[in-house]
Amino acid sequence: TDGQIRTGRDVVMAALLGAEEVAMTTAPLIVLGCIMMRKCHLNTCPVGVATQDPELRKKFTGQPEHLINFLFMVAEDTREIMASLGCRNFKELIGRTDLLRPSARLKDHWKTADLDFTDLLKPAWTLQSVTSGKDSPMFCCVPQDHELAHVLDRQLVLRAGPALENKTKVVLKDVAIKNVDRSVGGILSFEVTRRFGAAGLPDNTVHIKFKGPSGQSFGNWLAPGITFELEGDANDYIGKGLSGGHLIVYKPGMAPFKGHEAILA
């Protein structure tokens, strides 16, 4: 889980509610010097965190040791709370809602006085079959197969082989895409940067024309030398982290509406 995880207490609370992993973003950024100016998208970050301006980047004072020290302190805080609860390891925390109680102060305010957390704090083992019992594991015990071996990008990497091997121009036409094909371009871009570094390939070395509705993050982190052309519609986060590649998106030829009048990609 993520969102407002900043202290050891936050980590423990998340685990008790069922989280097996936690992600921290705001606190580590502040540790590295962020002052929350809310200007990340303007390239004018005054402390050099979220900017590519060479002069502003000189103002960045963060060091890896700052972040390491902070995370060690969060871990120590977490361990102390775990010890007070009698938990020997993190897995023993997961899903233990029986260790949580709603704050009595909630009854003192009219907005929260009628909140009922009974179902939210119901132990997970009571939701399973009666044969499983309290001793059933409350964490993931079976590895999850994300089926990355079968994603569309794997086919693109194979078909773009000549470009990856000797920079021969490759053009692929009418590649079918569906909205379950997410983050298309990520693995292909990785293969480009793995071989040729940040400089990538010459412009349009790999030109792929797709047809259909693309999934989320179409063309994410697209590396230099790759051009994606989509005849169809794209979902959110199109071009996320675009890194020098080119994206072209236009409406299907059979679409009844005018492209310049559409407000959604």
Based on DSSP secondary structure assignment, what is the total number of beta strands? Answer: 4
How would you spell out the order of helices and strands?
A: HHHHHHEHEEE
Mean pLDDT: 90
Share of β-strand residues? 5-15%
General form: globular
Radius of gyration: 25 Å
Portion in helices: 10-25%
Q: What's the N-to-C terminus distance?
A: 29 Å
What is the number of helices?
7
SS-based structural class?
A: alpha/beta
Give the strand line-up of the largest sheet.
Answer: 1-2-3-4
Unreliable sequence segments: none
Main sheet attributes: strand count, strand direction, barrel closure:
4 strands, parallel
Task: Explain the layout of strands and helices.
Layout: H1 8-16, H2 26-31, H3 54-57, H4 64-85, H5 152-159, H6 161-166, E1 170-176, H7 186-196, E2 206-211, E3 226-231, E4 246-250
Parallel strand pairs: 1-2, 2-3, 3-4
Helix pairs in contact: 1-4, 5-7
Using brief descriptors, characterize the structure shown:
265 residues; alpha/beta; four-stranded parallel sheet
